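Note to self: keep these together.
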Amino acid sequence: MKTFIEILFWICIGLVFYTYVGYGIVAWLLVKVRKALGITFPTLNDPDFQPQVTLVIPAYNEISCIEAKVKNSFSLDYPASKLDVLFVTEGSNDGTTEYLESLQGQYPNLKIIGGHERKGKIEAMNMAIQTIKTPIVIFTDANTTLNKLVIKNIVRHFKDEKVGAVAGEKRIQTDDNEAAAGAGEGLYWKYESFLKKLDTKLYSVVGAAGELFAVRTNLYGSVEKDTLLDDFMVSLRVAANGYRVIYEPQAYAIERPSFSIQDEMKRKVRIATGGFQSIARLAFLWNIFKYGWLSFQYVSHRAMRWAVAPFCLPLIFMLNLALVFLENTPEPLSLYKILFLAQVVFYVLALVGYWFENQKIRIKLLFVPFYFSFMNYCAIKGYNRYRQGITSGIWEKAKRAQ
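Structure:
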């Protein structure tokens, strides 16, 4: 019995380590090996390649930020004659649609799709794609700020016909006194950026951030109306069709962190719920014999983070506790006792971090244990919500810090 528990314990530790650290190491080594063998992908940067582009912005009740978004969108460094800006304001009742309509005389390329009923972001995107005539469409959120060269840095990759989509970078703008949730979110996206750079060099990014991603219009297809992670599903289906998805860190969207830990939990649980929904719909990607590198990257970088590691963590704790009771050694601090003590300290620090967060006190030392535990807890909650069934792609927006 003890031997079986030990084997299971170390397997679980190995899976968690691989999910959060090991894959990055393996991907880094594989990139180095491929480079040594002369296997690389071209990086195109033809300044004369400037295709027609439509910037699509779903904007449900975004009156608080819509003025800034319009100014940002029309200040981007790209020929005005080749850029359309399309706002999808379906269901808005706070004046967003009316405000945009008042600006159409000032901005000839400003387009609006309205509607009286809110159907959700994915329905807004599906509705928008049917009206777009440009070869490239870029999706971005209304509450983000794009860097000036964002479009040029994105479209240059599409000169390569094997590139089907481009994922921009999400950056979290945090203040020195920001809440732990926001600071942790910022650290998480910095690590994600590092992994996506490796993914691109290895083969393809597995998933894009909805704050900013681009796709060839003819590859978008149609996404189920109850889809929660539209960005992830669209980009993975493009990759499954044989196209690469590129990560471009010099095209970025800046947004504020969640207003509170409760708002961040709401957002994380929804993402995790959508993750399990995506795993079910993308089950074919587990076929490594057909999809090769894409399967390896998808399982290692995404599927395991949602469906494996979060469930291994409580199992590791319980197995470790069992091993402490089962071991027969006079040593006061054996290996399993040390590991169990380390886990207890880690989770206590996470709980203390949660308490300080609610007190609006920021302690950097607690960011990692708090946000790591928080993220995996939300994944388990997301699984439970997925099991209850998803009937709509509409969700309550998480409040962002001002």
